[in-house]
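Researcher: Let's do a round of design. I'm pasting the structure tokens now; please hold your answer until I've finished.
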């Protein structure tokens, strides 16, 4: 009887450990890096952060477009916009952050260039 209880207890503990490790396994995709494509506008174009093309490169090599939970720091551009349209040429750097529960994670810089028509 003692041998049976010992074997049953060991089997139960192993089963619990397997369930615990399986349940705790991270099932979310792990991001390896981000890329932010540059964007060109001409004077008179309307600036929109939705024009940004941001891609996450996962650890498994898969590339995924990111378009939600982003924060853009547009302080440098705002002074050269009238009604949301560019009024002069220039080159700007917009910091892009992925907004996550734990903190804002900087994705990279978005280079925006404005030229004459």
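Researcher: That's everything. Go ahead.
Model: Designed sequence:
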């Amino acid at each position: 009887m003692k041998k049976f209880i010992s074997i049953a207890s060991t089997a139960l503990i192993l089963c619990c450990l397997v369930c615990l490790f399986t349940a705790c396994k991270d099932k979310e995709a792990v991001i390896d890096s981000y890329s932010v494509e540059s964007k060109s506008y001409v004077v008179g174009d309307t600036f929109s952060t939705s024009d940004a093309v941001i891609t996450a490169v996962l650890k498994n090599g898969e590339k995924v477009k990111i378009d939600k939970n982003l924060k853009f720091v547009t302080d440098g551009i705002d002074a050269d916009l009238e009604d949301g349209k560019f009024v002069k040429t220039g080159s700007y750097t917009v910091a892009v952050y992925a907004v996550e529960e734990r903190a804002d994670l900087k994705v990279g810089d978005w280079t925006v260039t404005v030229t004459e028509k």
